[in-house]
Every structure is written in structure tokens, then in C-alpha cells.
């Protein structure tokens, strides 16, 4: 009896153990299934996220492309928009032979454009690469066979030669060595004298350096203007001028001997009359006129055709109210008839003789205008600010020339002179009519 009870108890315990084992096994299986389901679910989530990410990437790329789109602008006087740069254009310069326009941008290139293509539908250009740096300023040499640049990271001047190939095309070769680093503050402008005798560089402190063409400093000028805002060489190649925090423009003559040797930098004259600091200035092509634009919100036209060595001072011709701001640029047409002033993204164009506002160009660029200048023939006004270069017909220049010739015609007494003036008026009016009738680029 006891043996039977013991056997029954043993069987019962064995059954219980088997049941426990089965239960534990089932629980492990469920746990494994849950884990696998969780893993599968996580994998599915990752795949879903990856797919979603792939779907989102094109949207981000599209957004970047949208940001890179060119700023659209149109105006009846717009002759062309030059659009080969992939970075913002910082500086422009026309060659003295009138054939080329140079532009530099933060895309590590300098572009050389043919001015005869401005009115064509396609605007081709030649590219000079700026190795391991980018140029912020560019200026042609007087013979139009080379140009100099200011290097943003190198803080120095680099010379490029323009070499003509056998097929007539141009290639560019950088000089083996850059100029030494001498400036201690940010650079404002550089230039080469039309005489080919010196190079100028000016910085935002009060420093201007005069260099020979080999990279040696001939002289250094302290402008004593607290800070410089602009500096340039006159088109005649004799003078260097600067403006800044003080309300005057200072002009020096860079003097050379009869044998071409450097002598000295002598103070020539000042332009005094503004009531606040001067943003910028420009010369006429013969250096007989200068225009200045100031924080006092006026521009002034000056006669600088004086013999300063005989104590003659420049005299003020006109003062005109205008809109201006920090960074405003001013351009004077080669014949001195037209003044153009930038204010942010806008340009205002005035008749220099009467002071009358002729044209207002709003939203020319998507960013602040960085450069503004007329071509050497006075046919076009160009400006830069974003990735595009805007080229405008100088219609105000045509109008001013026609008015001047009409005044001369009234005073003319010689019949041959009258006929010649009448013919010139007819030709200028025809050119103006063609400009105004031209389709907008």
C-alpha cells in the first residue's frame, strides 16, 4: 500500500515537472517570437525611415537648387546679364583698349568678357583659375595684356599675364611669385597707373602702399582719415586719392623723374565741402572732373583741372541730394556727363550738368552692389552684386550729349560747324532710339 502511494506520488511529481518544463519552453518560445517580432518591426521602421530619408533628400537638394537660382531682373535699359560665375561677383574692370571686361568672384575664377558681345544673345567668356584662393579685386594693366588680383586668403597681389595662342584665343599664366604681404587690415582697392609706373593698394585702416611692378614698395601713405572707405588711381596715372571717416577727399601726386625713376609722393589738393564722411569717389576719363558721394546724403561734382603747384584749389560745380548708405559706390561717365550712385541693391543715374535724376533702377541685384562703373566709351554702365553682372545702356549719356550739341548748334556761326553738329545730333538720336527700342535681355 505504501509502495503504491509512493509510486503514485512519484508519477505526480514527474507530471508536474513535465508541465513546468513545457510551460517554460512555451514562454521562451513566445519571448523569442516577441523578440523576433520586435527586431522585424525595428527593421521595418529602419527601412521605412531610410525610404523616407531617400524621399526627403531630393527635396533638400531641390531647396538648395532653389536658393542657387539667379535673381531675376528686367528693365528697358538692361542690355545684358552676364551669368557665368558660380559665386558672388566682387569686382569689375574694363581694359583701357575697351575690348574686355574683367570680373572676379568667390568661385576662384576671374572671367574675361568681350565687350563686343554685350548685345548678343550668348555671352561667352574666358576663365582664369585662381589656384588655392580666390580674388576679391581685379585690375587690367595699361596695355590690356595682363591683370592683377588681390587674393582673399593670401592677402597679397598676384599678377596674371594674358597670352595669345596661335589660334588667336587667350590663355592665362600667373606670375611665379606673389607680392609680399604688407597690409595689416582688410583691403579696399588696388590699381595700376595708366603710365605703367606703379601699383597702388589701400586698406581699411589708413594705409596706402605704392609699389613698383616687381613687388617692391616705393612709398607708403598714411591718410590720417581714421579709417579709409575707398581709394583709387586717377585715369591719367598721376594721382592717388582716398576718402574715409573724415568729410574730405585727399589727393596725392606720385612723382617720377625724367628718366622714369621714382622721386616722391607729394600732397596735391583736397576736396572739402561734405559735412560727413565720404563713401566713395570717381574720376572722369581725363581726370578733370571728380564726383564724391557722402554720408551726408549728397553727391558733389568738382572741377579738378587746376594747377595745384600754383596754389589753385579745385572748385565745386554742383551739390545734389541723393540716397546713399555704407558701401555706396559712385561712377562718373568718361565724358563727365552722367553720375551713377549705388545704394544697397539700387542704382540712381543723374545728369551731371543739371543734377536731374534721369533713371532709378530698383532691385538690380539680390545683394548689395559691390562695383559700379562705365565702359571707356560711355556706352554702358555695369554693376555687380550677386552672381550676375548687369549691363545697362547709358541712355542718360546719349540724352546729355544731344542736349549739349543742341546748345552748341544754337551758338554756332559757321555753316560747316552747324552741318556737322546737326549730323552728330541725328546720329546720337538714332542711337538713342535704337537703345530704347531694343528688347529687354
Fold and architecture overview:
The protein is α+β, with helices and mostly antiparallel strands. Helix content is 24%, strand content 38%. The protein contains three helices and 28 strands. It has a four-stranded antiparallel β-sheet with strand order 1-28-27-26, with no helix packed on it. Residues 1-13 and 19-67 have low confidence and may be disordered.
The amount of helix comes to 10-25%
- Oligomerization status of the protein chains: single chain
- Mean pLDDT metric: 87
Q: Biggest sheet, open or closed, and with what strands and sense?
A: 4 strands, antiparallel
Radius of gyration: 35 Å
Write out the strand line-up for the largest beta sheet, numbering strands in chain order: 1-28-27-26
